[in-house]
Automatic annotation (TrEMBL):
<feature type="domain" description="Glutamate/phenylalanine/leucine/valine/L-tryptophan dehydrogenase C-terminal">
    <location>
        <begin position="240"/>
        <end position="470"/>
    </location>
</feature>
<dbReference type="InterPro" id="IPR033922">
    <property type="entry name" value="NAD_bind_Glu_DH"/>
</dbReference>
<dbReference type="InterPro" id="IPR006095">
    <property type="entry name" value="Glu/Leu/Phe/Val/Trp_DH"/>
</dbReference>
<dbReference type="GO" id="GO:0004353">
    <property type="term" value="F:glutamate dehydrogenase [NAD(P)+] activity"/>
</dbReference>
<feature type="active site" description="Proton donor">
    <location>
        <position position="164"/>
    </location>
</feature>
<dbReference type="InterPro" id="IPR006097">
    <property type="entry name" value="Glu/Leu/Phe/Val/Trp_DH_dimer"/>
</dbReference>
<keyword id="KW-0560">Oxidoreductase</keyword>
<feature type="site" description="Important for catalysis">
    <location>
        <position position="204"/>
    </location>
</feature>
<dbReference type="InterPro" id="IPR006096">
    <property type="entry name" value="Glu/Leu/Phe/Val/Trp_DH_C"/>
</dbReference>
<feature type="binding site">
    <location>
        <position position="406"/>
    </location>
    <ligand>
        <name>substrate</name>
    </ligand>
</feature>
<dbReference type="Pfam" id="PF00208">
    <property type="entry name" value="ELFV_dehydrog"/>
</dbReference>
<comment type="similarity">
    <text>Belongs to the Glu/Leu/Phe/Val dehydrogenases family.</text>
</comment>
<dbReference type="Pfam" id="PF02812">
    <property type="entry name" value="ELFV_dehydrog_N"/>
</dbReference>
<feature type="binding site">
    <location>
        <position position="278"/>
    </location>
    <ligand>
        <name>NAD(+)</name>
    </ligand>
</feature>
<protein>
    <recommendedName>
        <fullName>Glutamate dehydrogenase</fullName>
    </recommendedName>
</protein>
<keyword id="KW-0520">NAD</keyword>
<dbReference type="InterPro" id="IPR046346">
    <property type="entry name" value="Aminoacid_DH-like_N_sf"/>
</dbReference>
Length: 473
């Protein structure tokens, strides 16, 4: 094994290191080989495509993301004692789609982009997941994200499997008409493989409700008017009330459940939030409305702090006028890099993946970390935080509010009946509170932390559905 592989595996299997030496048990060999294959493929592709160092931060981040999912799933499989053949069937995606999308640019020249859709599992229902437009869309990462969606929908107990897709393009370099042509061509290529009872895409990085409106329109040319083919649509085309706020609202419901478990409530606690976009700003606003003291927030422009609590509605107004939290007069400017180390009760990373590392985790002063972003905590940081007694509410549960309200949107489209916002919010609360209770039951029965509890709940539900459906050829 190369030094590099050992370092990746040591991170992933940090719980099995003894005195700094990597110890891999025999039954883990197969999983290790799988991770090595993912690592090698990513390494080669990233090095070739972007000319980056094979051990550079981008490579490390991609490896971490892809492998963390495999790692957590592996832990869950061990906890649940799942048969290795079932495990293999859970790991391999149901279908991987790769299509070439050629469009004329506005100046008449032709340009081609590659689009992907990985449909991971449909044992519990139609597959569900975002479509992202990003220059670094890459099949192995899409695959890991599709798997994560399978476990996330299962944890939330909504009747879906998992999928993810995207087009390797930079939407900022495309005009709106070029984006529309690209979306329509992509939809033409995959229209018979998506659908309300097959696979239901949603917006993700670089896509939005307008992208979903184009997919709906193009799909409907082939299949008749079908709003339930996508979620995250504009309200006039069948989008759900409450969808914009749903991930942030779900984060708050999850936090509420966790704090209640510790005899605490939202009101009166001090919160620090990294990221003030869709998820961070809604989370901050709802916490503020419920009496939480949001003492510091950061975004890409900088960070602000007020020990008495920031006036979040005023900060939202400032951000909409200036584009960032920098310069907000209701607080003092602080270094954005120190946000994770701020004194508080609850720390909420709501921006990027991989921000809590072995180094940054050492400085965390919060008692609770709520993973509003995807993969904010790497496996090493997990250990450091556990040794400090910090409780982590894992992303696979904490940010599931968005996909849960996407499910409500699909239900409303199929019912042909629109719910009012109070109904959407109260149903979301039910789903989040119930999922927390289910995770806690698993944690108690298997003596594990919330991350392993959540993964075990999700993997267990999918495994059960898979076995009940059977494999008859
Ligand atoms: N939007 C959803 O429904 C949803 C659902 C599930 C998970 N997530 C995850 O939540 C996270 C945030 O998503 P979003 O929709 O709010 O994105 P967004 O683009 O609306 O906001 C991202 C925020 O992060 C900030 N940011 C970027 N780099 C930063 C840095 N270095 N330091 C501090 N702040 C930085 C940006 O300024 C912005 O305020 C992502 O990890 C996303 O995958 C989002």
């Amino acid at each position: 094994m190369s030094k590099e592989e050992i370092s990746v595996l040591t991170v992933l299997y940090s719980s099995t290191t003894v005195g700094g030496e990597l110890v891999i048990e025999e039954e883990e060999e197969e999983k290790v080989n799988q991770i090595k294959i993912v690592a090698r493929r990513l390494q080669r592709r990233y090095a070739l495509k972007f000319g980056i160092s094979r051990t550079g931060p981008k490579f490390e981040e991609q490896i971490q993301k892809a492998a963390a999912v495999v790692f957590c799933q592996g832990g869950a499989v061990r906890i649940l004692g799942i048969d290795s053949k079932v495990e293999r069937s859970l790991l391999i995606p149901y279908r991987e789609i790769k299509v070439e999308c050629t469009i004329p640019k506005d100046d008449g020249t032709l340009v081609s982009y590659v689009g992907f859709r990985v449909q991971h599992d449909n044992a519990r229902g139609p597959m569900k997941g975002g479509i992202r437009y990003h220059p670094e869309v890459e099949p192995d990462e899409v695959n890991a994200l599709a798997q994560l969606m399978t476990w996330k929908t299962a944890v939330a107990n909504i009747p879906y499997g998992g999928a993810k897709g995207g087009i390797g393009c930079n939407p900022r370099e495309l005009s709106i008409t070029e984006q529309e042509r690209l979306t329509r061509v992509f939809t033409q290529k995959i229209h018979d493989l998506i659908g309300p009872h097959l696979d239901v895409p949603a917006p993700d990085m670089g896509t939005n409700s307008q992208t979903m409106a184009w997919i709906l329109d193009e799909y409907s040319k082939f299949h008749g008017h079908t709003p339930a083919v996508v979620t995250g649509k504009p309200i006039v085309l069948g989008g759900s009330l409450g969808r914009d706020a749903a991930t942030g609202r779900g984060v708050v419901f999850g936090t509420q459940a966790l704090l209640a478990d510790h005899g605490m409530s939202i009101a009166g606690q001090k919160y620090v939030i990294q990221g003030f976009g869709n998820v961070g700003s809604w989370t901050a606003g709802i916490l503020h409305d419920q009496g939480g003291i949001v003492k510091a927030v950061s975004d890409v422009s900088g960070a602000v702090k007020n020990d008495k609590g920031l006036d979040i509605p005023a900060l939202v107004k400032h951000v909409s006028e200036t584009g960032g939290v920098k310069g907000f007069e209701g607080g003092n400017a602080i270094e954005a890099s120190s946000i994770l180390a701020e004194e508080c009760d609850v720390l909420i990373p709501a921006a990027l993946g991989g921000v809590l590392t072995r180094e940054t985790a050492k400085d965390v002063k919060a008692k609770f970390v709520i993973e509003a972003a995807n993969h904010p905590t790497d496996p090493e940081a997990d250990e450091v935080l556990a040794s400090k007694g910090v409780t982590i509410l894992p992303d696979v549960y904490a940010n599931a509010g968005g996909v849960t309200v996407s499910y409500f949107e699909w239900v409303q489209n199929i019912q042909g009946f629109m719910w009012d916002e109070d109904k959407v919010n109260s149903e979301l609360q039910k789903y989040m509170i119930r999922a927390y209770a289910d995770i806690k039951d698993l944690c108690k029965n298997h003596n594990c932390n919330l991350r392993m509890g959540a993964f075990s709940l999700g993997v267990g539900r999918v495994a059960k559905a898979t076995m009940l459906r059977g494999w008859e050829a």
